[in-house]
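4.2 Preliminary Data

To establish feasibility before requesting continued support, the project team ran the inverse folding procedure on a target of 218 residues. The structure was first converted into the token representation described in Section 3, and no sequence information of any kind was made available to the design step. The complete token record follows.
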């Protein structure tokens, strides 16, 4: 069994690397963003609870998020392991995950922390664009479309998401450092943390992570 957690700021590349690892090792990439969207779309009891808080403009409480994650971890495709992306987000959720795994007589093998310089994170996030028609993603600097502001796949208009605007990006990064960064020491103290330099090319980051995973999965 291979149970992994991906840590890192928004824009660090957690989702990209988790998707690669999922394909390589045949275990699901579990994104809390996807879990939320699925529960909301399916109008599950947990989705209804989350929607109530969101409609009030409030943060979804940890216990609702934790229940969604636990429900996802109990699905059959996690029998050989999983890669968590976006959970835990704070120390309380870190303890909750430990408890969930203890209930399954399981444990984490590694926590991969992708460390990227602040300036590069801002460039990555602010430069992102998405097609309003087909949802294809681009980047004005790193993955530009053939024609500026036009989707190369369908010709649709490319826009910047509200949460990728400069002021919002700085807020997201500040919240990360306040709430999520303490998890780095939480997992370091448990000898689970493995730090990877995420400033280089995607393939170099992947190679470093695979080396770590191969070592802990012996």
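Position-by-position output of the design step:
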């Amino acid at each position: 069994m291979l149970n992994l957690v991906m840590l890192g700021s928004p824009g660090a590349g957690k989702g990209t690397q988790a998707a690669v690892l999922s394909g390589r090792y045949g275990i699901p990439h579990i994104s809390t963003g996807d879990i939320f969207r699925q529960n909301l779309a399916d109008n599950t009891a947990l989705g209804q609870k989350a929607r109530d808080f969101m409609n009030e403009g409030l943060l979804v409480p940890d216990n609702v998020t934790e229940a969604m994650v636990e429900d996802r971890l109990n699905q059959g495709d996690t029998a050989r392991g999983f890669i968590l992306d976006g959970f835990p987000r704070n120390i309380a959720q870190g303890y909750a995950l430990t408890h969930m795994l203890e209930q399954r007589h399981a444990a984490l093998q590694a926590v991969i922390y992708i460390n990227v310089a602040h300036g590069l994170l801002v460039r990555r996030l602010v430069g992102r664009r998405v097609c309003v028609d087909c949802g294809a993603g681009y980047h004005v600097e790193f993955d530009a479309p053939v024609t500026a502001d036009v989707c190369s796949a369908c010709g649709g208009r490319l826009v910047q998401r509200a949460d990728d605007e400069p002021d919002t990006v700085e807020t997201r990064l500040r919240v990360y450092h306040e709430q999520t960064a303490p998890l780095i020491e939480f997992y370091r103290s448990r000898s689970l943390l493995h730090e990877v330099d995420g400033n280089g090319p995607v393939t170099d980051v992947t190679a470093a992570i695979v080396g770590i995973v191969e070592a802990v999965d012996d």
